[in-house]
């Protein structure tokens, strides 16, 4: 680890070596006022490190240039790891103000490094001599990624174009930040107090109790609706009141697009147009051409090829699924064409009738603590990992837990933080991140500090946290990302863990979801939280039988998001027209439910506008093809087969981005993936 001489500021924890277990972040010591000075110092230190590299009179080598650059910025990583995770998981107006202030400064700082001619000259000299350097596979990848990192960020541009690039990237960083903050604020702004219990007929007791607690927290009497997933999803499934379903649906799909300070429609246009300018400046026709170079898909033609193949395969089945739900609604006296706010309600009732299984039947068997232990136990069985809660590790919120992760020999592997429940200070959704990555320096293996963050159903005054089946699969999904982050064995942090191509990163997460419907796995933990009764075998059979219920509809829905993402990022001239009209045109070929006027997704599509998935949302379907193909090996050999797990660990989870993902995948699978396993799993090809 590089020794850095920092100013002595006793009150700023970032300027000291952490004395916590495993050098974890001392959240109990960090205050909001510590962040900005720490970033300022981190930028100063990194500039000094780069200057020393540039001023080295020796000829550029892999060691004195590429490695020096890789290890520079340690303090920046330390501060960023804390700050940006807090911005997502435990934000505040003060943190958001700091983020806005920092955004142009960090953009300028990054550009000062990426666009430094002397620095790039040294990098290029090493890169041009790569054939003579006798580098290892991992060293070669680091060299390539380092060179491409400069070239793809304007290092080959003229001075005039570099100045333009700097301004574009600075403006983009501010706009994406503002976009995300608008989504969070608009989501938190909405609430609807219901005082008449009859209006909430159909809602399960658990949901009613949660809504009552929402109201109580707000100092009100009654039941408080909001747009958080834990309220919205069950409400749309179970509420008999169609008018209220429509009201909540419309509130959700008109966020950030009805005027006012949080409207994102103009920001959407500015972001995609700025991305187009960046791509054009770097010599590409559209942003997707630029972004897809470092993806398994490689180009937009291959992305559309996958989206189109899946749409053609699944759309006939999706249309039949819609007809079946419509016929069921008609039989129940609906007398109207199903609208989006009707779909979850009637499809859930039809599912219940066909398979006699629903979330409320399953919830009692999925108590959060038992599910968590089961997911940990799955990692024990597959990979020999053990999880021990460590109460001496500081956490950023009293609901967060920290675990020491060790291998079968008791050797320390990683720290894992878990944060399960929604708060106003937490953005929606579920994600994995890291407070510290993994790397090896001077023979020391610096192990990672990983976090998984959810928005799961809270415990109530009378019940523990009981998960829906979807929440169980979400936990498995994010835990798959965590395994990718924890099990990594790489020399360089920039290549370790989840630092892989965007359309490969979802393979380790999505493959874990397969265990959710396996009887052998469920039998090991799913017991009724009150009676201790093991989940009945017939209930597991129903889960398995219903696994592909409306699977084609959900596939088309995911494809629609992929088409929308690609539509925004394949424009070849600036877009100045109506955002929602363009969106509806982009998604038209996947439309199953009626399109509702004056509703949209783009103003709240955080994945692509401030979440790193621009020209990459197709990755979920790409990785689903991979995960179905990969899990077919487990299915054939046994879902707990140690040899298969060892191969997946050694060839996928440990390797990070040290080799091309297709090379890694073929080494595990023995062949390139096809969509056949996915079509078979989903029942599209019998």
Number of domains: 4
* Mean pLDDT, all residues: 95
Name given to the CATH architecture of the largest domain = Orthogonal Bundle
- Low-confidence segments, given as residue ranges, are 1-6
The end-to-end span amounts to 56 Å
Can you identify the CATH class of the largest domain? Mainly Alpha
In the sheet with the most strands, the strands line up as 3-4-5-9-6
Count of extended strands: 9
Give the proportion of residues in helices.
Answer: 40-55%
Structural class: mainly alpha
| Residue share in β-strands | 5-15%
Name some characteristics of this structure:
single chain, 686 residues, mainly alpha, Glutathione S-transferase Yfyf (Class Pi), Chain A, domain 2, Neurolysin, domain 3, 5-stranded mixed β-sheet, two-stranded antiparallel sheet, 27 helices, 53% helix, globular, disordered N terminus
Summarize the structure.
Helix content is 53%, strand content 6%. It has 686 residues and is mainly alpha-helical.
């Amino acid at each position: 680890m590089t020794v850095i001489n920092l100013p002595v500021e006793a009150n700023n924890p970032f300027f000291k070596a952490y004395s916590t277990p495993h050098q974890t972040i001392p959240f109990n010591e960090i205050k909001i006022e510590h962040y900005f000075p720490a970033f300022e110092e981190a930028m100063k230190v990194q500039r000094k490190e780069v200057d020393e590299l540039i001023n080295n009179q020796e000829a550029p080598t892999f060691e004195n240039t590429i490695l020096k650059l890789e290890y520079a910025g340690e303090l920046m990583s330390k501060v960023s790891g804390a700050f940006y995770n807090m911005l997502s998981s435990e934000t505040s107006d003060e943190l958001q103000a700091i983020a806005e202030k920092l955004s142009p400064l960090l953009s300028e700082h990054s550009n000062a490094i990426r666009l430094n001619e002397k620095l790039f000259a040294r990098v290029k000299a090493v890169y041009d001599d790569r054939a003579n350097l006798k580098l290892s596979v991992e060293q070669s990848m680091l060299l390539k990624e380092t060179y491409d990192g400069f070239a793809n960020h304007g290092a080959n541009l003229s001075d005039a174009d570099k100045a333009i690039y700097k301004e574009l990237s600075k403006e983009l960083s501010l706009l994406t930040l503002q976009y995300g903050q608008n989504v969070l604020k608009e989501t938190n702004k909405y609430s609807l107090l219901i005082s008449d219990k009859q209006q909430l007929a159909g809602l399960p007791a658990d949901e009613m109790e949660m809504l009552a607690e929402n109201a109580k927290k707000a100092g009100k009497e009654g039941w408080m609706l909001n747009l958080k997933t834990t309220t919205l999803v069950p409400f749309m499934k179970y509420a008999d009141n169609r008018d209220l379903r429509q009201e909540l649906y419309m509130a959700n799909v008109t966020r950030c697009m009805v005027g006012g300070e949080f409207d994102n429609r103009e920001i959407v246009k500015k972001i995609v147009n700025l991305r187009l300018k960046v791509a054009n400046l770097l010599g590409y026709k559209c942003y997707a051409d630029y972004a897809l170079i470092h993806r398994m898909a490689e180009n937009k033609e291959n992305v559309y090829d996958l989206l189109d193949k899946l749409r053609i395969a699944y759309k006939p089945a999706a249309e039949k699924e819609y007809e079946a739900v419509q016929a069921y609604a008609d039989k129940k006296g609906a007398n109207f064409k199903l609208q989006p706010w009707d779909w979850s309600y009637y499809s859930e009732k039809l599912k219940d009738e066909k398979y006699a299984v629903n979330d409320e039947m399953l919830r009692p068997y999925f108590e959060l603590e038992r599910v968590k232990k089961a997911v940990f136990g799955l990692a024990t069985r597959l990979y020999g990992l053990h999880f021990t809660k460590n109460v001496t590790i500081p956490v950023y919120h009293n609901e967060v837990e920290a675990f020491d992760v060790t291998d079968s020999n008791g050797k320390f592997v990683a720290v894992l933080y878990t944060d399960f429940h929604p708060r106003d200070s937490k953005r929606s959704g579920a994600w994995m991140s890291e407070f510290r990555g993994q790397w090896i320096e001077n023979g020391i293996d610096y192990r990672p500090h990983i976090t998984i963050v959810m928005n799961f159903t809270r415990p109530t005054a009378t019940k523990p946290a009981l998960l829906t089946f979807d929440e169980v699969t979400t936990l498995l999904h994010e835990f798959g990302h965590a395994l990718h982050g924890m099990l990594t064995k790489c020399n360089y942090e920039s290549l370790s863990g989840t630092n892989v191509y965007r359309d490969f990163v979802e393979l380790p997460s999505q493959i874990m979801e397969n265990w959710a419907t396996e009887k052998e796995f469920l039998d090991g933990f799913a017991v009724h939280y009150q009676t201790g009764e093991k989940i009945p075998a017939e209930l597991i059979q129903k889960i398995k039988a219903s696994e592909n219920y409306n699977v084609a509809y959900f596939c088309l829905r995911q494809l629609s998001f992929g088409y929308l993402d690609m539509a925004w990022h394949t424009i070849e001239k600036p877009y100045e027209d109506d955002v929602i009209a363009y969106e509806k045109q982009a998604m038209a070929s996947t439309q199953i439910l009626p399109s509702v006027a004056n509703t949209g997704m783009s103003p709240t599509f955080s994945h692509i506008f401030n979440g790193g998935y621009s020209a990459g949302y197709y990755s979920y379907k790409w990785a689903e093809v991979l995960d179905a193909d990969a899990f077919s090996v487990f299915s054939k050999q046994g879902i707990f087969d140690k040899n298969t797990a060892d191969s997946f660990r050694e060839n996928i989870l440990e390797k990070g981005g040290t080799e091309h993902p297709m090379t890694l995948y073929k080494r595990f699978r023995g062949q390139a993936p096809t969509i056949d396993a996915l079509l078979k799993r989903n029942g599209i090809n019998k």
